[in-house]
Specification:
42% of the residues lie in helices and 14% in strands. 41% of the residues are buried. α18 (410-422) packs across α21 and α19 crosses α21. The chain has helices at residues 4-18, 27-35, 52-60, 72-84, 98-109, 120-123, 126-133, 162-169, 183-192, 220-230, 243-255, 269-280, 314-321, 339-348, 354-372, 377-384, 398-401, 410-422, 429-437, 442-447, 463-475, 493-500, and strands spanning 40-43, 64-68, 89-92, 115-118, 137-142, 174-178, 199-202, 210-216, 236-239, 260-263, 286-289, 304-307, 331-337, 406-408, 479-481, 489-491, 506-508. β12 (304-307), α13 (314-321) and β13 form a beta-alpha-beta unit. It contains 22 helices and 17 strands. The longest helix has 19 residues, at 354-372. The chain is an alpha/beta fold. It binds adenosine-5'-diphosphate (ADP) and zinc ion. It catalyses: Couples ATP hydrolysis with the unwinding of duplex DNA by translocating in the 3'-5' direction. One of its GO terms (molecular function) is DNA binding.
């Protein structure tokens, strides 16, 4: 039980330091949990207020809190922000000079510093560990904790050594935070940090004010100009895959009279900063960017985010689209999709290790399913992050506003579940579909699956049709993903119940993007 006075103290501190009068969502419970010395795992969408969950306890607690953060730019932003609040926050990374480091160490030993931001590479250094062992450390926060997992979209190998580093500092409470964690990534993080017993706080990922739309990538420039004319004067971001494309589109927009500017890592830092500031100050309406743009950018009134090219993962897509409508007002998320883009992305991975390539392929496949699926986009996105969206029609995505034709699909769902059952819950979608349509490939042969009663039961339809059925069975939770085996599908409780007592299921056909090749994009 939390004492009344303690609770008041947190509120007072919130007001005193940050000037806010209310905690948001479950911030207060999270902070109290950490202050109680418990390991804490926070999954909260971008912009919801994760940083406060370690910044405030750092101020309330004796000693120095260590914040592990992957990006020097992010660290600097946060340190500047905290300093502006009058908090003594500092960072320790490779940009500091010898003299600066000596001074920093002294201040930490003297107990002046409350928050120390470090990159995992710096924490890994013997000399830094030795020095931190002498400091009174209150707790460790791990920001962007999804970097620990190789199943996610942003894996950093050095993040996997964090636990070992922390252990050298003693038995400290840990708070891990991330804005993206599928159930699989979540478990991976907890196992790696040895905090399976941690209290997990998951906030809803539903962004009610965002409208999700996917369009075929056909006459894309024409569609883009039309969209921008209809939204003239509004603030927006257009993401492209390559720097070249960024330059090209930025120029196209400028020529057409829009206030647009490019942003990518290949630009001169001065130019990059100028364009970013221009966007923040509203001299520029539209930023055309690679994914280098956006981390740590907090512009509340971005009215649209356009993906000119298909992003590499749904995590990335969710993050990038999440930069629109932060003020709670409209945010239009438009993606131009073509199958060809997926092939291009796949080629980028050809030099990676087999495992990395496989992981990247699975992420891309999720992207493909999302784009081509007739199911509510919101429901799909939330399902991906392990959250069930129960409403039938969200009213805020293309699939809900312009629904595809529906059909009664209980027979199909039954076949999909049976296929999973008869193959022993050990296979992924491709194999299941091959069994259903009766396609005798090497796997089917070697497992003898042509002998199963379900083999060939769905031969009247093609594999694309069945993939869509299996996907819908998954999203409507008749099937579920096997947490330990990537790609493997199992039968859920709902699925078992369905086999015993089937009921009507409304399904729809996927969008057909196969014929949409954009001539102008082929150049
Ligand atoms: P995240 O790290 O989850 O993306 P931030 O920690 O950057 O989000 O917070 C997003 C914004 O919300 C920041 O401008 C922050 O100051 C603000 N914020 C956080 N908590 C509160 C609160 N309790 N009341 C008002 N604003 C808050
Ligand atoms: Zn919807």
């Amino acid at each position: 039980m939390m004492l009344v006075e303690e609770k008041d103290t947190l509120k007072l501190k919130l007001k005193e330091i940050f000037g806010y009068s209310q905690f948001r969502g479950n911030q207060e419970t999270i902070i109290q949990n950490l202050l109680d010395g418990r390991n804490t795992f926070v999954i909260m969408p971008t912009g919801a207020g994760k940083s406060l969950c370690y910044q405030l306890p750092a101020m309330v607690h004796d000693g120095l809190a260590i914040v592990i953060s992957p990006l020097i730019a992010l660290m600097k932003n946060q340190v500047d922000q905290m300093n502006a609040y009058g908090v003594n926050a500092r960072f320790l990374n490779s940009t500091l000079s010898k003299g600066e480091i000596t001074r920093l160490k002294k201040d930490c030993m003297n107990g002046v510093v409350k928050l120390l931001y470090v990159a995992p590479e710096s924490l890994n250094k013997e000399e830094n560990i030795e020095f931190l062992q002498k400091v009174n450390v209150s707790f460790v926060a791990i920001d962007e904790a999804h970097c620990i997992s190789e199943w996610g979209h942003d894996f950093r190998p050095e993040y996997r050594r964090i636990k070992t580093m922390i252990q050298q500092l003693g038995n400290l409470p840990v708070i891990a935070l991330t804005a993206t964690a599928t159930p699989k990534v979540q478990i991976d993080i907890q196992r790696n940090l040895q905090m399976e017993e941690a209290d997990v706080f998951v906030s809803s990922f539903n962004r009610k004010n965002l409208y999700y739309e996917v369009r075929p990538k056909k006459e894309t420039k024409k569609q883009l100009i039309k969209f921008l004319k209809d939204n003239k004067g509004k603030s927006g971001v257009i993401y492209c895959l390559s720097r070249k494309k960024v330059e090209e589109i930025a120029q196209l927009l400028t020529v057409n009279g829009f206030k647009a500017a490019p942003y990518h890592a290949g630009l001169d830092p001065d130019v990059r900063e100028k364009n970013q500031d221009g966007f923040l100050n509203e001299d520029i309406d539209i930023i055309v960017a690679t994914i280098a743009f956006g981390m740590g950018i907090d512009k509340p009134d971005v009215r649209f985010v356009i993906h000119y090219d298909v992003p590499k993962s749904l995590e990335g897509y969710y993050q990038e689209t999440g930069r629109s409508g932060r003020d709670g007002l409209e945010g239009h998320c438009l993606m131009f999709y073509s199958h060809n883009d997926l092939n291009k992305l796949e080629k980028f991975n050809k030099d990676k290790s087999v495992q990395e390539r496989e992981n990247a392929r699975v992420l891309l496949q999720e992207m493909e399913f999302y784009a081509e699926s007739p199911v509510c986009r919101r429901r799909q996105l939330l399902h991906y992050f392990g959250e069930e969206y129960k409403q039938d029609n969200c009213g805020m995505c293309d699939n809900c506003v312009h629904p595809r034709e529906r059909f009664e699909g209980s027979e199909f769902v039954k076949i999909a579940i049976e296929a999973v059952k008869q193959t022993g819950e050990r296979f992924g979608i491709q194999h299941l579909v091959n069994v259903i349509v009766g396609l005798e490939d090497d796997y089917v042969k070697s497992y003898g699956h042509f002998n199963l009663p379900i083999y060939g039961k769905g031969g009247d339809e093609n594999t694309d049709f069945w993939k869509s059925i299996v996907r819908q069975a998954l999203i409507y939770q008749y099937l579920e993903k096997d947490i330990d085996n990537i790609g493997v599908l199992k039968i859920s409780e709902r699925g078992e119940a369905f086999l015993k007592k089937p009921h009507n299921v409304e399904l729809a056909k996927d969008h057909d993007f196969t014929t949409d090749i954009d001539e102008e994009e082929e150049s």
